[in-house]
Amino acid sequence: MANMQRKTTFIFHTLAMLCIAGGMYAQKEPQYTQYMYNIGSFNPAYVGTVETPDITGLYRAQWTGIPGAPRTIRFGVNFPLPNDRHGLGFNVVNDQLGPTTQTYIDLAYSFQVNLSEDTRLSFGIDAGGSLLNVDFSKGDFEVENDPLLQSQDVNNFYPTIGAGLFLYQRHWYVGLSVPNFLTEGIYNDVVAGIVEDKQQFNFIGGYVFDINDDLKFKPAFLLNYLNGSPVNFNLSANFLINDAFTAGVSYRLDNAVSGLAGFQVSGSTFIGYAYDYNTNALGEFAQGSHEVVLKFYLGRGEVTNDGRPGRLKDKGKQIDSPRFF
To answer: Where does residue 231 rank: exposed (0-12), middle (13-18), buried (19+ CB within 10 A)?
Structure first.
């Protein structure tokens, strides 16, 4: 509670209202609407499960129209190794909120085991660090003489270690991850008033229904849990049409409804867009949130076994479209 009180003293007036509205405290990690195309960002076990190497770029402008509202940029790589069991990943995420900029950099490794002929379990770990910068000269503050504002600007590096599990078949998946175990006790009082010093848990899942040869339907969910904060629950439903066009909707509990659309520009390039409309009190001040994702799939056209998940090279069909997760 003391940390939250200190936090509200340095953010902009408008951002203080966001805390009251329930939008800001919901999670420590960056928030994504198109999480179904961005799993490697928060679960290292995913990086080796993809069919071919892929590169993802994402930009999110949250709560447009409000000064100091969050802005997130992510660059990520998922790289399955030829032995079909190991994978590597790389992530850089830049998250801005008011006078605070936090950049996460990590390397991920995953290892898969076969539980049955068509079921796999992947274990993942990532390690890296967080570059935290706070410029107390930015913005207008709610309590101008608060001792926190007399502190020197923050420009520190903090190590991060995370882990995850990812269980999947060809048509479904579930996952659990903790982005960072190194939280409690590593921040001083000033930084603890800015960054939540608690572990976050992410639960994810989805199922792909093959309605016919030209239409797939995938409901999915993402649940973020941070001790002491309300659960952040996301539920989405997407259609994949002719292996080329995606359209869907998403709902974030007590927060926002979203529309999603995507297009497979070519066999190796996908672009997606999401728009969030706030359903809480924040909607009176914000003009919605925009999110764009761009994915490049390397090595499309390799042969994969149609009856088993992942990259099992065997007699089967060519990879001409995304696996849809």
So the answer is: middle
Question: In the chain, what are the helix, strand and coil shares in percent, each to the nearest 5?
Answer: 10, 50, 40
- As a whole number, mean pLDDT of residues 155-159 equals 88
Q: How many CB atoms lie within 10 A of CB 105?
A: 16
Distance of CA 210 to the CA centre of its chain: 26
| Residue spans per domain, the chain | 2-318
Quick count: other Cβ atoms within 10 Å of Cβ 315? 8
Count of beta carbons in the 10 Å neighbourhood of residue 264: 21
Looking up tokens 């990086």 gives 47
Residue 115, phi then psi, degrees to nearest 5: -90, -30
Residue 305 has pLDDT above 80, yes or no: no
Q: For the beta carbon of residue 168, count every other beta carbon within 10 angstroms.
A: 24
How high is the pLDDT of residue 152?
A: 66
pTM for the predicted model, two decimal places: 0.82
Name residue 89's amino acid: G
197 three-state secondary structure: coil
Q: For residue 156, what is the enclosing H or E element?
A: strand 154-168
Which fold, 2-318? Porin (2.40.160)
How many Å apart are CA 311 and CA 315, to the nearest integer?
A: 12
**Residues listed for the chain:** 325
Distance CA 61, CA 316 (A): 41
Question: Mean pLDDT throughout 289-314?
Answer: 63
**What is the model's pLDDT at position 226?**
87
Who contacts 55 (Cβ-Cβ below 8 Å, separation ≥6)? 75, 76, 77, 295, 296, 298
Instruction: Give residues with Cβ within 8 angstroms of 4, minimum separation 6.
Output: 19, 25
Q: Provide φ and ψ at 191, rounded to 5°.
A: -70, -35
